[in-house]
Specification:
Blueprint: H1 5-19, E1 23-29, H2 31-34, E2 42-45, E3 49-56, E4 59-62, H3 64-84, E5 88-89, H4 101-123, E6 150-161, H5 163-171, E7 180-189, E8 195-203, H6 211-221
Parallel strand pairs: 2-5, 2-6, 3-6
Antiparallel strand pairs: 1-8, 3-4, 6-7, 7-8
Length: 229
């Protein structure tokens, strides 16, 4: 079947508009936050994990340095957003270049617990509203500042295309193969381990090169998070 030029152009415009417009795929709050029975005053953001892959016509390649850079940029954007909500971001004891061995293993354990829970958070995000997710009170073993109300987990993945890959994708537009970035932010009670909030914005990968756009995406994704009173 021959597809008319007009149809192809229409699909192209539609896909490109979707590829370059911010998309926020849900913001989910625990009843404690929805009903404002819990107020967040202080937060500790755990080390972020964002993985960026470069795709060319020859295959995929992990961008290690870029992934680390973007992880730091997203962490900074989350911190800025929380501060704007009057939630003080406390110094993380895990940002040290050489944390002690005990603290290193404690962090790895909690991060692994969160990573194990993440697929369920992605698939059944609405269950956050039903208070069905928790990391357990083992989170207290992190021994962060006593004033800490929440622990913030940042995960993400992205694809950037070479010019050759981009051209190939445009020529095969009906495959809907485009660069993207998705960042998830999970907020857990620092004492009980309950997941209090989860958000998973999805947008075009060009946001990675624009700090203002990145900050805007994170701010929009946490828009429903109540400010500290």
């Amino acid at each position: 079947m021959v597809i008319s030029r007009r149809v192809v152009l229409t699909v192209l415009c539609l896909v490109l508009s979707l590829a370059f417009v911010f998309e926020t795929d849900g913001q989910y709050l625990h009843p404690k936050l929805e009903q404002k029975t819990t107020t967040i005053h202080h937060a500790v953001i755990l080390p972020a994990k964002i993985e960026i892959v470069k795709e060319s016509s020859k295959g995929s390649e992990m961008m290690i340095a870029e992934s680390e850079q973007i992880s730091k940029a997203v962490l900074a954007a989350v911190a800025e957003t929380l501060e704007q909500k009057k939630i003080k971001v406390l110094d993380s004891p895990f940002q040290s270049a050489e944390p002690d061995e005990t603290r290193k293993y404690q962090l790895a354990d909690i991060q692994n617990r969160y990573d194990a829970l993440l697929p369920k958070l992605m698939k059944k995000s609405k269950d956050v509203k039903k208070a069905r997710f928790t990391l357990g009170d083992e989170v207290m073993l992190l021994n962060v500042d006593k004033a800490t109300d929440i622990l913030v987990f940042i995960r993400g993945a992205g694809r950037v295309f070479t010019k050759g890959k981009t051209a190939f994708s445009l020529m095969n537009i009906l495959r809907f193969d485009f660069p993207f970035t998705q960042v998830t932010v999970g907020i857990a009670d620092a004492h009980s381990g309950e997941i209090l909030a989860f958000t998973k914005p999805l947008t075009a990968s060009k946001v990675l090169k624009d700090p203002k756009a990145l900050t805007k995406m994170i701010a929009n994704s946490l828009k429903k998070l109540p400010a500290s009173s």
